[in-house]
Amino acid sequence: MKEFITYILQFGNLNQQQLELISNKATEVNLQKDAYFSEAGKIAQQVGFVLDGIVRVCYYNNKGEEITKYFIEENNLVVDLESFDNEIPSSAYVHAITDCKLLIFSKKDWNELLHTIIGWDAIVHKIISKALRQKVERRSPLVSEDATTRYLMFLEIYPNVVNRIPLSYIASYLGVTQSSLSRIRKNIS
Amino acid sequence: MKEFITYILQFGNLNQQQLELISNKATEVNLQKDAYFSEAGKIAQQVGFVLDGIVRVCYYNNKGEEITKYFIEENNLVVDLESFDNEIPSSAYVHAITDCKLLIFSKKDWNELLHTIIGWDAIVHKIISKALRQKVERRSPLVSEDATTRYLMFLEIYPNVVNRIPLSYIASYLGVTQSSLSRIRKNIS
DNA sequence: GGCGCTTTTTGCCAAATGGCAAATGATGTC
DNA sequence: GACATCATTTGCCATTTGGCAAAAAGCGCC
C-alpha cells in the first residue's frame, strides 16, 4: 500500500484523511502466473496497481499472431482505459507473466473516490495522460528501427524485465520472430 | 470557428456564453506549406486546431533519419503536450505539409479559459486522452506487420491524406524506404 | 539419473527490404 | 517549348528477416 501512496503523491497532494479513504477501497490480490487480469470481449471492471510481478497487455491480429502491446512492471497502474471508461468490450488481454501481487479497485469504488475526493480526478488525469504519453513514446520509435535496434531499445526501457520472462513475449512485443530474436541476442553479446 | 465549436461539443456541454469566451480567445492563422507550427528545442507556447490542411509531427533519430510520428488532419487539435504542459523543450517538429488554416490559442489564454470556464478542463482532458489513445492505437500495430500491411493500415487510418502529400512522408511514417514503398504501391494496384 | 515438457538455439533456404544510383515523370518558370 | 527542380520509379545486388523443422538446453518431477 505504501508503494501506491508514494506513487500517487508524485502527481499531486492529498491529506492523510484522503489517503485513508483511498486505502480503504483497495484490495490486495494475488494473480498466479498465466492468469488474466482482464480479457478481450469483456468490459474492464477494475483498476489495478502492480505491487509485484510483470503483466503484459496483448491481443491477436488478423493472422492469429499474438502481439504484446506493452509490459507493465511494479509500481504502475494497470487498467484497460478504453473499455473501463466507455464501458465497451475490451479488445485486449491483460496477462500476468509472472506471479503477481496487485492492488485492486472496483469500478464502483473508483468512481466513488472520484466523486468524494477533491483533486483526485486531477491526479488520476495526470497519471493516465503520463502513462499514455509513455506508451506512445515507447512504442512509436520501434516502427522505424531494425530488429537489433528494437531489442536494444527494449533493454533500455525495460531493463528489469528481460531476465524474468520468456523470449517469445519479447519477440511478440518487438514484432520479430522468436528465432530472429535469438540470433540477434547472440550477435550482441 | 464553427468547426471548432462542433468539435468541442462532442466532448461535453457548454452554454452560449462559454462558447463565446472561447471563441474570443481564438485567432485564425495561415501557415504556409513547409512552415513549422513548433520546433524541436523550443517550448510549445500554443494550442492549435487544424481548420484546413495537413500537419505532421516528426523528429530525427540518432542516425539522422527523419521520422514522421503522425499526421494531423482537419478538425483535430495540434499541441505538443509534453512540452506545453511541463514547459520543457520539445523534441519534435510540427510541420505544415500543405498550406494550412489554424485556430490558435496562446498559452496564457488557454490557461485563462481553464480557470474561468467550469467544465472546460474536463472537456480538454477528454479530448486529450482520446487523442493519446488514438495515437497508441494507430502506431502500435505497425510494429508487428510487414511493409505492405502497414501501408494498407495507413490507407485505412488516413484515407484522405494519401493523395495530398509526398510519398516520402508516408514512408517515414511507416518505417520503410521510399523505394520500397513505391514498389509496394505498384504491387497493390 | 531419467523422463517429459517447454523454451531457446541452429541450420537451411526463401522472401522481404534496404542501399545506391540512374531513369523517368511532374511541375512551375521563363 | 526548354529548362531547372523535385518527386517517384526502377534496376541491381547485398543484407536482413522469416518459415520451418530439428537439435539442444533448461527445468521440474518421479
TrEMBL record, chains A, B:
Pfam families: cNMP_binding. Keywords: Kinase, Transferase. Signal peptide: none annotated. The keyword Kinase applies. Residues 10-114 form the Cyclic nucleotide-binding domain. PROSITE patterns: CNMP_BINDING_3. The keyword Kinase applies. GO terms for molecular function: kinase activity. This is cAMP-binding domain of CRP or a regulatory subunit of cAMP-dependent protein kinases.
